[in-house]
Design a protein that fits this description.
Number of helices of chain B: 18
Shape of chain B: globular
Family (chain B): Belongs to the cytochrome ubiquinol oxidase subunit 1 family.
Oligomer: heterodimer
Structural class of chain A: mainly alpha
Distance between the termini of chain A: 48 Å
Subcellular location (chain B): Cell inner membrane
Radius of gyration of chain B: 26 Å
Radius of gyration of chain A: 21 Å
Order of helices and strands of chain B: HHHHEEHHHHEEHHHHHHHHEEHH
Largest sheet of chain A: 2 strands, antiparallel
Largest sheet of chain B: 2 strands, antiparallel
Strand order of the largest sheet of chain A: 1-2
Number of strands of chain A: 6
Protein name (chain B): Cytochrome ubiquinol oxidase subunit I
Strand content of chain A: 5-15%
Enzyme class (chain B): oxidoreductase
Keywords (chain B): Cell inner membrane, Cell membrane, Electron transport, Heme, Iron, Membrane, Metal-binding, Oxidoreductase, Transmembrane, Transmembrane helix, Transport
Chain lengths: ~375, ~525
């Protein structure tokens, strides 16, 4: 139906859709968990915040799992190289994410304040650490990662864990935290009863919104010194073998796409505009506008990264023949076609029943509800 | 590859998978038992069944979250620890994992929240449908994971592409309808049903012994008896055996389980017990039942069950042929347009993986001497004594489960199950047994596949990531501490829930405002 080039392009875009889907759904769970100790002071307040995501976080988390599966299926090189390269960072993310399901479920099982406070910590770590590490990882991807492929296409990573942290990658990590905390506070403001928690969520949301704008702008300035470009012609129909492409570091190259395709500027505009809309919504107490704004902002920020780097997905900072691009790191044409078919059938179904579940669970969570109802966490 | 890295990666995978697999079988079975109990509730409208469902739902929930939490590790471990595997077969192996997320895990995880929180927001029938969706999603998850795992046991529908240096899909239908995957699926989910039935049976028996919550206990026990009997029969009858003898690897696995060092004249006898001697390559003091193995493995009296020595000879031929394929791949790497090399490759590509076995002993398989090839061929034999004994333990527990549930079913039918104390005690003691069988079964399947990560395609020692032992030890220690802590908490919570019984919590909220310990302090 589609040729190999179009399929690769579609799967490159779907990779973005999955990451954005993850940021928009599980993103507010992460943000909410990172906010938990700060917006909620009493046990009833904490339970209210936890239960604002309680019934739906599990389904949201599947976006993360699906992201992993889809990268494995459509971009096996990216899956193999990035996860083994960022080995200890991945461990950090997994360990913190493991704390989340148990934190939600087990916190309410015993009444002791000490027990509950420990799980509050666990939930905070489960929200904050992944948000930070994901951002740091994206920063590293933008910088290029120190890996090379041998002639059998086995990946060797030549960096150390501490090397992951540079001023730029830390900034990317903070941006990611700010973006998700903004999204989380917009969610909390939407889902909890009016009262002290609601007021605190708005306050943190405003701070996170301003931080998002500043960090995104500063990130743009710093990213101006980064970039790679392909030397010679890349074959979008060629076999997935990175060794046949030559890449050179080319400061400023991450901005080149915007000159070639000015429509792409819509992504950074959304990144800034969405955050402004969120701020405006917070100020005027229009909670849907705030949540819509934080969603648009996250979409714009993630799309900016993807579009700036296109066709790169994971450039190598040490070997001109190892960089992974949309043209040399995909699955075979057949697999991409099959997976596209499966996605077209099942993604709409998933979206439909997810929407239904959110509708059934609509309405604000109150402290009275969580303290009188046996089914709440 | 550094052998320490490979061994540590295997250790880590084994630890995280065995741990994950403590929770998954219970989820598989428990979700369907909830559907059964809730259906009775919807049909009869009797409150006692609602109480029953809500209680077991609580146990399900405590277990479910750990299944999900540990599943995260599994999903990403292929990339983190087995990156060459991920590159080599991602084109095929990644697809079932992605489809699992899209088709099954989304279903299960989205509805599980509604299952717990939706009691007041849905009609009775609506809630039953939600519970059913969770059960369906859980079991579909198992299907896709086992399609992926079945492909590692029997890699059909794919071939090596020298232009990309990896395996690529040729026939996705063959991957989906892989007979070994189908056999593994029915066997594994049935085992999960048994696991859940034994837990429900044992806990109900415990309550009956104590004379507590008898109304819920006797009903739960009846459901467990019926569901458990059907499932335990299906585990043993459907078994794994329908998949055997299809590929060299499964033949080898069967031979190792039987410690059959040589092909015996048909029909082969089933070795009941014996002492496999790896050095002498023979089994001492064996007690054999004539004809039975031939019947099980070939469903005939005239076909042979191939022994290990004969399979090793075949492996030796395949290594020799594989070296030719390897040589052609090296030529194609230098010049993709070398038509002669491509022709040679096409003839021998089926055996390429066997040449890779030599890489454990020599960098370039083309330099291997005939003697080295003959010795390497013995690498394809897995750990025979382990296979021999773990299979027997697993199978014995399988038969014991049939006996347990047949008895339970009879007692429930006669309505004397609340009084038969010897049986109630037995049912409590039986609780750990299915877990032992399930973990052994998993180990059999995975260790029985060694030395291959993917049978005949990629040896395990080549599949791992290029990591340092320090990084691996760090994560192994980290996972062990985290998992160990969570295991202790989970067991305590389940015991507490069981002790508390099917009583709706009289919510005693902590006096509010609670002196919530400030987390920032």
């Amino acid at each position: 139906m589609f040729d190999y080039e179009i399929l690769r392009l579609i799967w490159w875009a779907l990779l973005g859709v999955l990451l954005i889907g993850f940021a928009l759904t599980d993103g507010f769970d992460l943000g909410t968990a990172a906010l938990l100790p700060f917006v909620a002071k009493t046990d009833a307040e904490r339970r209210m915040v936890i239960n604002s995501v309680g019934p739906t976080w599990e389904g949201n988390q599947v976006w993360f799992i699906l992201g992993g599966g889809a990268i494995f299926a459509a971009w096996p090189f990216v899956y193999a190289v990035s996860f083994s390269g960022f080995y200890l960072a991945m461990f950090l993310v997994l360990a913190s994410l493991i704390l989340r399901p148990v934190g939600f479920k087990y916190r309410s099982k015993r009444p002791g304040p000490k027990w509950r406070s420990r799980w509050d910590w666990a939930l905070f770590v489960g929200g904050f650490v992944p948000a930070l590490v994901f951002g740091v990882a994206v920063g590293n991807v933008l910088q290029g990662a120190p890996f090379r492929l041998d002639s059998d296409l086995r990946a060797f990573y030549e960096g150390a864990f501490l090397g992951l942290f540079t001023p730029f990658t830390l900034l990317a990590g903070l941006l990611s935290v700010a973006m998700l905390v903004l999204h989380g506070s917009a969610w909390v403001a939407l889902k909890v009863e009016h009262g002290p928690v609601h007021a605190r969520a708005r306050r943190f949301g405003a701070v996170a919104g301003i931080a998002s704008i500043l960090l995104f702008a500063l990130g743009g300035v710093m990213a101006a010194k980064l970039g790679f470009r392909i030397e010679g012609v890349a074959d979008p129909f060629g076999p997935s073998n990175p060794l046949r492409t030559t890449s050179v570091a080319s400061p400023g190259a991450w901005f080149a796409n915007y000159g070639l395709h000015p429509w792409m500027l819509i992504a950074p505009v959304l990144g800034f505009g969405g955050a402004l809309l969120a701020l405006l919504g917070i100020q005027t107490r229009s909670e849907w506008a705030a949540f819509g704004g934080s969603s648009l902002s996250a979409t714009g920020i993630i799309a900016t990264v993807g579009l700036s780097m296109f066709p790169y997905i994971l450039p190598s900072s040490i070997d001109p023949h190892s960089s992974l691009t949309a043209w040399n790191a995909s699955s075979s044409e057949k697999t991409l076609g099959i997976m596209l078919f499966v996605t077209c059938v099942f993604l709409p179904i998933v979206l439909a029943y997810t929407a239904w579940v959110f509708r059934v669970m609509r309405g604000r969570v109150t402290t009275r509800l969580v303290t009188t109802h046996p089914d709440f966490y | 590859m550094d052998p320490t890295v490979v061994d540590l990666s295997r250790l880590q995978f084994a630890l995280t998978a065995l741990y994950h697999f403590l929770f998954v079988p219970l989820t598989l079975g428990m979700s369907f038992m909830l559907v059964i109990m809730e259906s009775v509730y919807v049909m009869t409208g009797r409150e006692i069944w609602r109480t029953t469902v809500r209680f077991w739902g609580k146990v399900f929930g405590i277990n479910f979250v750990l299944g999900v939490a540990t599943g995260l590790t599994m999903e990403f471990q292929f990339g983190t620890n087995w990156s060459y595997f991920s590159h080599y077969v991602g084109d095929i192996f990644g697809a079932p994992l992605a489809i699992e997320g899209l088709m099954a895990f989304f279903l299960e995880a989205t509805f599980v929240g509604l299952m717990f929180f939706g009691w007041d927001r849905l009609s009775r029938l609506g809630h039953l449908i939600v519970t059913f969706m969770v059960a369906l999603g859980t079991n579909l998850s198992a299907l896709w994971i086992l399609i992926a795992n079945g492909w590692m046991q029997n890699p059909t529908g794919a071939s090596f592409n020298p232009d990309t240096m990896r395996m690529e899909v040729t026939d996705f239908g063959a991957v989906l309808f892989n007979p070994i995957a189908q056999a593994k699926f029915v066997h594994t989910v049935s085992a999960g049903y048994v696991c859940a039935s034994v837990l429900v049976l044992g806990v109900s028996a415990f309550w009956l012994l104590r004379g507590r919550f008898t109304e819920v206990a006797k009903r739960s026990m009846t459901v467990a008896a019926a569901f458990g009997l059907a499932s335990s029969l299906s585990v043993v009858v459907l078994g794994d055996e329908s998949g055997y003898a299809l590929t060299d690897n499964q033949k080898m696995k069967l031979a190792a389980i039987e410690a059959a060092w040589h092909t015996a004249p048909a029909p082969a006898g089933l070795t009941l017990v014996g002492i496999p001697d790896v050095h002498a390559r023979e089994t001492r003091y064996k007690v054999e039942i004539p004809y039975v193995l031939g019947l099980i493995a070939t469903r005939s009296l005239d076909r042979q069950v191939t022994g290990m020595s004969e399979l090793v000879l075949k492996a030796q031929e395949r290594i020799t042929s594989g070296v030719i394929a390897y040589d052609a791949v090296q030529k194609l790497k230098a010049n993709p347009n070398d038509l002669a090399a491509r022709q040679v490759f096409e003839l021998h590509k089926r055996d390429l993986g066997y040449a890779l076995l030599l890489k454990r002993h020599v960098d370039d398989p083309r330099k291997a001497s005939p003697q080295l090839i003959a010795d390497t061929a013995w690498d394809v034999v897995p750990d025979v004594p382990f296979m021999f004994w773990s299979f027997r333990t697993m199978a014995a527990i399988g038969f014991a489960m049939i006996a347990l549930f047949a008895t339970a079913f009879a007692l429930c039918s006669l309505r004397i199950h609340t009084r038969t104390r010897w049986f109630l005690r037995l049912a409590v003691w039986a609780i750990p047994l299915p877990w032992i069988a399930i973990e052994l079964g998993w180990a059999l399947a995975e260790i029985g596949r060694q030395p291959w990560a993917i049978d005949g395609v990629l040896p395990t020692f080549l599949a791992s990531s290029s990591l340092t032992p320090v990084a691996l030890i760090t994560t192994i220690v980290g996972f062990t501490l985290l998992y160990g802590t969570l295991a202790v908490i989970e067991v305590r919570l389940i015991l507490k829930t069981i002790a508390h019984g099917p009583v709706e919590d009289d919510l005693a909220p902590l006096a509010d405002p609670i002196p919530a310990t400030s987390i920032t302090a």
